[in-house]
Design goal:
CATH class of chain A: Alpha Beta
Radius of gyration of chain B: 14 Å
Strand content of chain B: 15-25%
Number of domains of chain B: 1
Shape of chain A: elongated
Number of helices of chain A: 3
CATH topology of chain A: Aldehyde Oxidoreductase, domain 3
Structural class of chain B: alpha+beta
Largest interface: A-B, 26 and 15 residues
Distance between the termini of chain B: 41 Å
Number of strands of chain B: 7
CATH class of chain B: Alpha Beta
Distance between the termini of chain A: 25 Å
Shape of chain B: globular
Order of helices and strands of chain B: EHEHHEEEEE
Structural class of chain A: alpha+beta
Helix content of chain A: 25-40%
Order of helices and strands of chain A: EHEEEHEEEHEE
Number of strands of chain A: 9
CATH architecture of chain B: Roll
CATH superfamily of chain B: Beta-grasp domain
Strand content of chain A: 35-45%
Oligomer: heterodimer
CATH topology of chain B: Ubiquitin-like (UB roll)
CATH superfamily of chain A: Molybdopterin biosynthesis MoaE subunit
Largest sheet of chain A: 5 strands, antiparallel
Largest sheet of chain B: 5 strands, mixed
Number of helices of chain B: 3
Chain lengths: 139, 114
């Protein structure tokens, strides 16, 4: 299990390769890539800025990932989230789930992404051509 | 006199103009006292916006729970533990928690990652 909250994400293919090597039982790896959308309603987004609680965010990420791993009996998982300025089109979050079969991988991935977005102390400021605002994710 | 550290994030950091600051308080000062009095007194220019952002508001006034403590919109952590879970002996004092020297208080707006 690996979690990371940092200005840089690891290389996605390397993360997949590491997961594959972690167990011979793995038959499915589900991957979520969160990227910066270039529009907010009818406004053009210029960039996003992420801020995290430095000590708590990785801890919460680890707790959520461990919780989901146990709940769905998946083999391994990775959750990474960027901080700082992120430009439109850039990747901001990688979540990977490795399991024996695809069904539990998809279920675990969906729950893990949802919980990361609503429970991890990370905040997002959206800077558009009309101004800037902090985004609150719906629970 | 206990000294506590207060951390602000995201929109609150912008409102207060600082990421963290220290407060020296009298013995027996509660978390509610800190949020209702000490912090707004130190930031009078933004005290009204602080109130609206951090507390539940009803008829332009801070809404209070049945136990007499203010109703919070934001999560407050004391040394990484939610104020709702923190213990003093066998009790869970919530906002009546008495601040201790060295306490680290984090006030967390609703999250928005991803």
């Amino acid at each position: 299990m690996k979690v990371k909250v940092s200005p840089e994400l690891d290389d996605l293919q390397s993360l997949i390769d590491q997961l594959k090597k972690s167990s011979r039982e793995i038959g499915a790896i589900a991957v979520f890539v969160g990227t910066v959308r270039g529009t907010f309603r009818d406004e053009k987004v210029l960039r996003l800025e992420y801020e995290a609680h430095e000590t708590l965010a990785p801890k919460v990420l680890e707790e959520i990932t461990a919780d989901v791993k146990k709940k769905y009996g998946i083999i391994d998982a990775v959750a990474e989230h960027r901080t700082g300025k992120v430009e439109v089109g850039e990747d901001v979050m990688y979540v990977l789930v490795a399991s024996k079969h695809r069904k539990e991988a998809f279920q675990a991935l969906t729950e893990l992404v949802d919980r990361i977005k609503t429970e991890t102390p990370i905040w997002k400021k959206e800077i558009t051509e009309k101004g800037a605002h902090w985004v609150e994710n719906p629970k | 006199m206990p000294k506590v550290n207060v951390n602000y994030f995201a929109n609150l950091r912008e409102l207060m103009g600082v990421r963290e600051e220290k407060y020296k308080v009298k013995e027996g000062t509660t978390l509610a006292d800190l949020l209702l009095t000490h912090i707004p007194n130190k930031h009078p220019k933004v005290s009204e916006r602080w109130k609206i952002q951090v507390f539940e508001i009803e008829d332009s006034e801070i809404k209070y729970e049945r136990d007499g403590t203010p109703s919070l919109k934001y999560l407050v952590l004391i040394n990484g533990i939610s104020y709702t879970s923190i213990r003093e002996g066998k009790k869970r004092p919530g906002l009546r928690y008495k601040l201790k020297d060295g306490d680290d208080i984090s006030i967390l707006p609703p999250v928005g990652g991803g």
